[in-house]
Amino acid sequence: MTSPDAKTDGKTAADLIITGCTALVHDDHEQIDFVEDATIVVRDGLIEAVTTEPMDLAALPDLPAAEHIDARGQIAMPGLVNCHTHAPMVALRGVAEDLPVEEWFNDVIWPIESNLTEKDVELGARLACAEMIRGGVTCFADHYFSMDTVAAVVAECGMRANLGEAYFSSQGAEGRERSLDFALRQRGGADGRITTSLAPHAPYTVDDADLAKAAQLAREHGLLVHTHAAENRDQTDTSLARHGRTPIEILQGAGLLDVDLLIAHGTGIVERDLPVLARATGRIGVASAPRGYLKFAWPTTTPVRALRELGIPVGLGTDGAASNSSLDVWDAMALTALVQKSTEGDPRWLTSRQALHHATLQSTRAVGLGQEIGSLAPGRKADIILVDLTGPHTQPVHDLPATLVHSARSSDVRTTIVDGRVLMRDRELLTLDVPGIVGELEERMPSLLDRSHGRKIQDYDT
Amino acid sequence: MTSPDAKTDGKTAADLIITGCTALVHDDHEQIDFVEDATIVVRDGLIEAVTTEPMDLAALPDLPAAEHIDARGQIAMPGLVNCHTHAPMVALRGVAEDLPVEEWFNDVIWPIESNLTEKDVELGARLACAEMIRGGVTCFADHYFSMDTVAAVVAECGMRANLGEAYFSSQGAEGRERSLDFALRQRGGADGRITTSLAPHAPYTVDDADLAKAAQLAREHGLLVHTHAAENRDQTDTSLARHGRTPIEILQGAGLLDVDLLIAHGTGIVERDLPVLARATGRIGVASAPRGYLKFAWPTTTPVRALRELGIPVGLGTDGAASNSSLDVWDAMALTALVQKSTEGDPRWLTSRQALHHATLQSTRAVGLGQEIGSLAPGRKADIILVDLTGPHTQPVHDLPATLVHSARSSDVRTTIVDGRVLMRDRELLTLDVPGIVGELEERMPSLLDRSHGRKIQDYDT
User: Where is the Amidohydrolase-related domain (chains A, B) (predicted)?
Assistant: First the structure.
């Protein structure tokens, strides 16, 4: 991402200098802290410094080659991470409303997905990336089909992503092999912005032997496994009735708790799962997407407090837009705080600082990038967003974390930067053309939405 | 609001023509419907027509004097109504976070409110109106102090409002008299945009005799009464323990269910209250502000389904920003749908069309303006918002009500119109200067926030 004329006087030029912002940082105990009137120096896509030292830009010979953003009045934060989504499903936003999850899957989504073409995935992924960049999301963990296409979109649009090709046991060995092939082939792609996962769909669609095979492959190849598990309480109850084990116990039996594992949702994690999770030797993370749980009227949400006591990071996600209606991680952050307070009956729990910790380091750990991103600290990748708090809805600021979590909205993100490259400047997308994408997507709709064939890709029968 | 040169050829000019929009209307059964490629004609602040007839603007002699908005690609909707707020409290946004309600009142808010000056109220109300206009709110029901000041801000900024001067029994007869004087003096103000209420604070701060007096005055003067009641379950339990009656039964005993009554919150409305409410002879409405209930970790929310069965309209509100963090009614609409689904355990309940009905006719009925606003229909006042759905987060549109409720955000409102007058055009506020207001408010903060005096305006002891 170094600009072509970035070398001056034999020194490597900084890619980017952001001045005058208030920077959200983590202190030595990982508490959220703020540095006022900060300058952020980015070189070769990495954060070199977050400093309050006055800098005389003109006096530094290597700086004229860099891009300079005057961010006075703005907050610089680590870019948000969407820890669990199916990006291309934005194409299906609104096709299955006000339904229980089994009808949502069996009557609408899985029949429609039997029509999916690579073009649909490509256009959906582009639209999703546009939505996410506009909402301050710099990285997403995606679990879907035709993922080579999604990888190409990631390369094109400049985002960071962890990508996994989903598979079911109903596909035989081929699904798993394709998932592994994808993961090995694409990791490190897009100038290192792409990491990959093995992506078995869920314990209710992938059998025990295949889950064990996934664990073995993950260990062999050092891959993260990204799967849905204990999505809701019904799944846990059904699993107990059919197999005498919870979905978490099934993962454990397959060896998946002894590799790096990203569990989507986990609202069906129950008391007896906690000691099982406590014995995990892999790095386990959970992605929580609370809007969809409310919309599906699930009786519980992700047990964030219990997971915290186990030291398991809970990252923020949106799931696909076909259930969640949006890929708004900012909204997931606020809703997580609200729903957690309500669920625990404790207004002091999940403070705004805690919510910001989930949105930063816990999210990056959940997707296996805990050392690379998630904090504005020297050596981390320069995934940075600038948030404007001058709007009437965010003034006055008596409590900056609360303003960010409960008053600001994703639309207050003005600038989105990944690897030091500006992907949105003053709310203008620089790498994606939304009207063009929407126009092409419209044309795809009749064949994508057709359910007259009676096929579906899978049965929801947990 | 007729423009000065509005008369041409002896005909009254239309104030405003909006063309090319999709208009949200109500059908004969009050179901939400949409008229595509609609033209909305506004004359003298009233909606004259919502039509799909092609109009040759140049050929109509009276039209050149009118303002013309080309709204292709936008949705025209009735302006949102904030059915319960304390607008000036935006000045206190974030001062009391992550606290139970009793500490929030006793330790922070009521001590700070003993410092309130008219200037604080004025600046807070201005900032609140700026936030609301930007969020597509055209009318708000306010319950606070120094309400003449709020009325002056409403006159200045062009919004519509129902205003009530709050009082406690601890103020003696003087509080009630001031509230009545305000209500009688200000009603019909700001060219008819101001209506008024009597505003006894709540059954736990206003005694039975004073509540009965409020009912009597309301009947005598034809005034709405706006009060907090059964705000949470604790209040109901405490009321039962102390008085053997629920807050709703206390209102009933005082005669307040036989006048027009706006009840804020009602999350503590219990089973035994339902027959009491069913026997009400006044027009009762309830304002629900779900974000704050989650934030305070209250165990229940407004019982929307039970109230619907009684025919009691439930309007949307935000409460004050000191608890709710924002005055975002769009967010209240989405959260109402989500929380209702979750609370009832029924994903089919509170559909997006129902949510839009709450946001329109139920809200306007709750604030006593059911005949004046709330629908884009001839003869109604021209309180209209234009919403842009071209952003990536609202595309594609498979289900327009769902897109509006669950994907769109208040920041998608581009234009806000009250009484036919444009208050925000393309997100630019035309009647309020936010940086100026914020700058003045900053200066007020040290004296407003001072709690060293040990005073407070009231005790929270339900």
Answer: 75-422
Distance from B98 to chain A by nearest Cα, in Å?
5
B208-221 vs B173-186: helix crossing angle, rounded to 10: 20
Question: Between chains, do A396 and B130 touch, taking CB under 8 Å as contact?
Answer: no
Q: What is the pLDDT of residues B287-304, one digit of tens each?
A: 999 999 999 999 999 999
d(CA B12, CA B8): 7
* Closest C-alpha among B210, B206, B208, B246 to residue B458: B206
Distance of CA B99 to the CA centre of its chain: 25
**What's the confidence (pLDDT) of residue A57?**
65
Q: How many CB pairs under 8 A join A and B?
A: 185
Report the residue of A107, A123, A294 to disrupt the B interface, i.e. the one with the largest count of B CBs within 10 Å.
Answer: A294
pTM of the model: 0.95
Do B396 and A442 count as a contact with CB atoms less than 8 A apart?
yes
Give the residue on A whose Cα is nearest the Cα of B291: A338
Instruction: Give the 3-state secondary structure of residue A283.
Output: coil
**What mean pLDDT comes out for the span B75-80?**
98
pLDDT digits (tens, 9 = 90+) for A324-353: 999 999 999 999 999 999 999 999 999 999
A14-78+378-429 CATH pick, 1.20.1290.10, 3.20.80.10, 2.30.40.10, 1.20.1640.10: 2.30.40.10
Q: Does residue B12 have a pLDDT over 60? A: no
CA distance linking residue A192 with residue A206, whole number of Å? 30
Q: pLDDT tens digits, residue range A101-122? A: 999 999 999 999 999 999 999 9
CATH code linked to domain B80-367 = 3.20.20.140
Interface with chain A: mutation pick from B72, B133, B338, highest number of A CBs within 10 Å? B338
- Spans of all domains in chain A: 14-78+378-429, 80-367
